[in-house]
Design a protein that fits this description.
Largest sheet: 3 strands, mixed
Number of helices: 8
Oligomer: single chain
Structural class: mainly alpha
Shape: elongated
Distance between the termini: 33 Å
Strand content: under 5%
Mean pLDDT: 90
Length: 154
């Protein structure tokens, strides 16, 4: 017979998070368990999956960009495939500084709490205050005008 359930539209934030999670698995080497561990099996509307992973694994940070391998660089929020490749190439010519990362185009507001350059950390006390980091990187959900009101909350 089937189910008598009303058709509902997937909220746009959820579609975006599922896409991001898929890209992390396909291109960045994340496992499904890393993205949605048993203790937090749902994606959040407020934080992208990579940031959520970083905050759950704060003990792995900061990462030194001058010695990190490609896979480690990909784990830093704000550094994707292109920037990780640019960092690896730039290291051939000398040490990477925070200024070099800015010149490369790395979004330092997102990345700086999670990295060091030549042992220098510019993230303040961010790693000691997870709630502050969550608030700092929390995204607000903009309701899609085509979604029902019941689906516009985050």
């Amino acid at each position: 017979m089937g189910y008598d359930l009303p058709l509902t539209r997937t909220p746009s934030w959820r579609a975006r998070r599922l896409y991001q999670a898929d890209r992390l698995m396909q291109l960045y080497g994340f496992s499904p368990e890393e993205i949605a561990p048993e203790e937090e099996p749902n994606l959040t509307s407020r934080l992208d999956p990579k940031m959520s992973w970083a905050l759950r694994n704060i003990h792995l940070f900061p990462i030194e960009v001058n010695t990190a391998d490609y896979e480690e660089l990909l784990r830093i929020p704000g550094i994707g495939l292109t920037f990780a490749q640019k960092i690896i190439r730039a290291r051939r010519y000398g040490m990477i500084s925070h200024q070099t990362l800015k010149k490369i185009g790395v979004y330092m507001k997102k990345s700086s709490p999670f990295l060091t350059c030549n042992g220098r950390y510019e993230g303040g006390n961010a790693l000691s205050d997870i709630e502050k980091l969550k608030a700092m990187f929390s995204e607000t959900c903009e309701p899609d005008i085509n979604e029902e009101l019941s689906m516009t909350h985050c």
